[in-house]
Design goal:
By secondary structure, the chain is α+β, with helices and mostly antiparallel strands. It has ten helices and 24 strands. The radius of gyration is 23 Å and the shape is globular.
Length: 481
């Protein structure tokens, strides 16, 4: 089991109590082990939905940092679909919520401001006055209310809710197995969902979809003004069932693409030698379980192939397990701190590098972009601060809270920011992101290359590619292989 007091501890093999960060949003978040269950849930009221809001904290949150990054910036559609909160209502003497001590004369207001009674007042008003009240779905009302609460916290992409199904999907995704179509999505409610990456050997890779396509509808449901989380939820679904995406692409009329969802494995790490150079190109898809060992294998293979330098591709990486972020950083940084964790009281804890890294003296360039989030930012920031390498690409997403995971009674989970993290040297990341050392933007028409793509290319063909970020990284490493 993980040690709740030690954010660097690793879970024992075969245990389910794992400390992990949560991926897509573009950018996922950081996950901590689910707390031990406590008797904090009162029985649901006879006149309310079958949920209960704890009257006391479920348990002391367990800190874990880094993360999955913002789900909006690099969301793995087959896996991530954070939509709403679980929870509900507690029985009491005033509507659905009991009056608390200190409630002022004005209903729903205490001396310090609105109270839970105000929510009960709104609940009762809807049920008493809505024209079609008999068809109200109390579960959806509860989920919607808590979703609004978590959004109001302002910890975008981190403090949030997972339904039971979504929680299972996240756990599955961090094992490296997915059910879906195989794309990563960026964007927000303003620009809409934009495909930022298409994963090789998936249904999407066999379709007409391209990087930069905007999803304007899912099975006829329009995405305009909808959250990325809700859109993702509608795209992912059962294996073997089709989903139809309506695509907007510059220069052509909107068109439909129908794709059948299926199970596929996403290799955590892929690698290849750059044609004509003694440089290894290593890409990490996400910080799922086993990522550190997969990275060690890739580094070992690169050395055996004669690599004298490494390009580490973290573009579109939404994050994952915090222990994997520590382990991977430690392959490239020989000593010191990986990142710093700061709790609500202001106490700072430095998370140290682990000994035994395989590439602590090899020249390295990190590729990052706006969809590089959370754990990817931990690694990027540590390499920058340690002076171990050059970062090429675009400013990262900017996640910076550490999440505690709280499992609720119906199988859903709350992710709540209980700490924040800064880089090795104390640079803030939250809502700011990390600036690259060399800024290179990739056009929407360009295709970011992966190791699998370059294996059969000649040096001339690679030089003629549209992946300007990779080409700039090779310029930085000129003379290093």
């Amino acid at each position: 089991m993980t040690d709740p007091s030690d954010p660097t501890s690793r879970p024992e093999p075969g245990t389910s109590d794992t400390a992990h960060l949560v991926p897509p949003q573009p950018g996922v978040g950081a996950w901590a082990p689910p707390p031990a269950p406590v008797d904090a849930n009162p029985a649901p009221p006879a006149d309310g939905p079958g949920f209960a809001v704890p009257t006391a904290p479920l348990a002391a949150p367990v800190a874990s940092s880094g993360g999955y990054g913002r789900w909006l910036a690099a969301v793995l559609i087959p896996v991530f679909a954070i939509v709403a909160f679980a929870g509900g209502v507690a029985a009491g003497s005033s509507g659905l919520f009991g009056g608390a001590a200190g409630v002022a004369a004005t209903p729903g207001v205490t001396a310090d401001g609105p109270s839970m009674d105000l929510i009960a007042e709104a609940w009762d008003t809807i049920h008493e006055n809505y024209v079609d009240s008999k068809n109200l779905d109390d579960r959806e009302l509860v989920y919607g209310a808590i979703r609004g609460m978590t959004e109001a916290v302002g910890d975008e992409g981190h403090t949030s809710f997972l339904t039971a199904e979504e929680a299972r999907a996240v756990d599955q995704s961090l094992s490296g197995t997915f059910v879906g179509i195989g794309v990563q999505v960026g964007g927000d409610e303003v620009e809409g969902p934009i495909i930022s990456s298409i994963i090789p050997n998936t249904p999407a890779a066999e379709s007409e979809l391209r990087r930069g396509d905007r999803i304007v509808a899912v099975d006829g449901w329009e995405t305009e003004d909808q959250s990325i989380d809700e859109i993702v939820s509608r795209v992912r679904g059962p294996e073997g069932e089709p989903v139809t995406l309506t695509i907007e692409r510059e220069g052509v009329a909107d068109f439909d693409v129908t794709i059948v969802r299926r199970t596929f494995d996403l290799p955590l790490v892929t690698s290849a030698m750059i044609p004509g150079r003694d440089i290894a190109f290593i890409r990490l898809e996400q910080f799922a379980s086993g990522a550190t060992e997969a990275m060690r294998d890739a580094i070992t293979g690169a050395k055996e192939a004669g690599a004298k330098a490494i390009i580490l591709d973290l573009r579109g990486n939404p994050g994952g397990y915090v222990n994997e972020a520590i382990g991977i950083t430690s392959q490239f940084v020989g000593d010191g701190t990986v990142y710093q964790s700061i709790d609500a009281s202001g106490k700072t804890e430095k998370v140290p590098v682990e000994a035994g890294g395989l590439a602590t003296d090899i020249p390295i360039v990190v590729l990052a972009n706006a969809e590089s989030a959370s754990s990817a930012e931990i690694v990027t920031g540590a390499i920058q601060d340690a002076g171990r390498g050059t970062v090429v690409g675009e400013k990262t997403f900017g996640t910076g809270t550490v999440l505690g995971r709280f499992d609720l009674s119906d199988g859903s989970s709350m992710r709540i920011g209980v700490e924040r993290w800064v880089t090795r040297d104390g640079r803030p990341i939250w809502r700011e992101g990390l600036e690259p050392d060399i800024k290179v933007e990739l056009s929407e028409e360009a295709t970011p290359l992966r190791p699998d793509d370059i294996e059969d290319l000649t040096a001339a063909e690679l030089a003629a590619s549209s992946d300007t970020q990779l080409l700039r990284a090779l310029e930085v490493l000129k003379g290093e292989g």
